[in-house]
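Something for you to look into today, if you have time. Could you write out one complete protein record for me, on any chain you like? Leave the record below and I will have a look.
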Amino acid sequence: MISIASPLLVFFLALIFSLGITLGWPNHIALSFFYIAVVFIVAVNLIFSSHKKLKFVTLSLVLLLVFLNHVGIFLGFILASGPDYMLWPDDAIDHHLPNSTDVSRWILGDGAIEIFTDNPFSKIYVSNMWVGLFFATLGIYPIVSAIAMLVIKLFTIYLIYSSAIILTKNKFIALTSSIIYGLLPTITFYTIQFYKDYFIHFLVALILFIFSKSINRPKLVILMALPLSILFIERFYLLLIICAALVLYYWGQSGKIFQKILILTLGILVSFVVFGYYFSGQGVIELIESIQAFESAQNQSIDVTPTTNIALDLFRITFTPFFNLYKLDQYERYDSLLTFGGFVHQLIMLFYLKGLWVLRKNRIVLLNFSFLFLLIILALIMPYNGRARDSLYPLVSIFASVGINSLLNRKKFELV
């Protein structure tokens, strides 16, 4: 009975929250805060219950919670006849929606698709293909893209749990990792809005899963080629920083000079392929100018422009989104998941830092250089972009869970 109470509570609150946001109820701001606060309390209760080894806290329960949380939001959107833009942001309208629509028509035999074009930054992503499959089956509606993303999110949670259980041999850490990723309000926002981040998270979780499996079965590392190749299409700079972290890890692990040279050569080769495709014909100066042009296009207001203080910008990108009173008057769509959810994210980041400290002497901590590289890049270019930062949240959730475990359980554990 206890196990079903939490999912039902979250479902009804998500439904009411979504209705209030979509219909613009006068008290929708307070309602948003209440919804996020209750989901946070439910998550904390599950974490403490898991620590007490209560049998009802299982991965299946976490998956059910996440499923019903999204379904509640979707149902509220449908009952309130929500406008398309609430689930289809500008990025979707400009790029993802046309691509997924073209894919769906191609599946139905009505038209052709061109995956790669002359412009490397204008192509059909694999994430677009996944949503296009659902469009072809269920129709082209905002709720359909949301369903497609939810399916992938559930698989992502399973991969995070499985990776954590292999790496730590600790069920509490594995469950906590899945709870953090599954119920964090900011992640919920990015997995109901038609961005491609839901698929990025899945790829990162898949890389972590293959990595964890390959520790005892090294030959499995070759399987990483698939998700890394897809990252080449989906988010190329993430491919570069993940490969850099993997090179650091395997370089330190390898005892033979030939293996070290091979690992370094592969890393350099990946870099040449990426830059050769995305910045073909550009010299160093042109590349810098392209980055500066991108920075200027992304930073159009005072509160998002990089400062001259890299330490401050690193702090901003690590803990954004921050609560600002003026944002209360600018609510639209489901933005309150970010505005109030930022408090939860900031707490998770503190636990993540604690987890890094706990495992500072373990070689596996080198994987977090990918997150450090990402933070530095974003701090220099767009220190407000939490969506890009959260690309590596599957990794963050596992190490944050290690941090939580260290506070609740003084008994040390060893990673594999």
